[in-house]
Fold this sequence. Notes:
The chain has 56 residues and is an all-alpha fold. The chain has one domain (2-55). Helix content is 82%, strand content 0%. It contains two helices and no strands. The termini are far apart. The mean pLDDT is 83. It comes from Neobacillus paridis. This is YtzI protein.
Amino acid sequence: MTTVLVVSIIIVFVVLLLAVITTSKAYSFKHTVDPDPLENNHLLKLNDEKERKQNV
Length: 56
């Protein structure tokens, strides 16, 4: 009975350790997001409008 309990505790600690290591690596990963092409088009249109107003 005690052998089963000891083995179970060891398994719990190994799983807990692996979960902590995996979570730590996930938080240290650098996530990047591509810019939204629609937003860029909108900004380009605003810049064009500003240039036209300045040239008039």
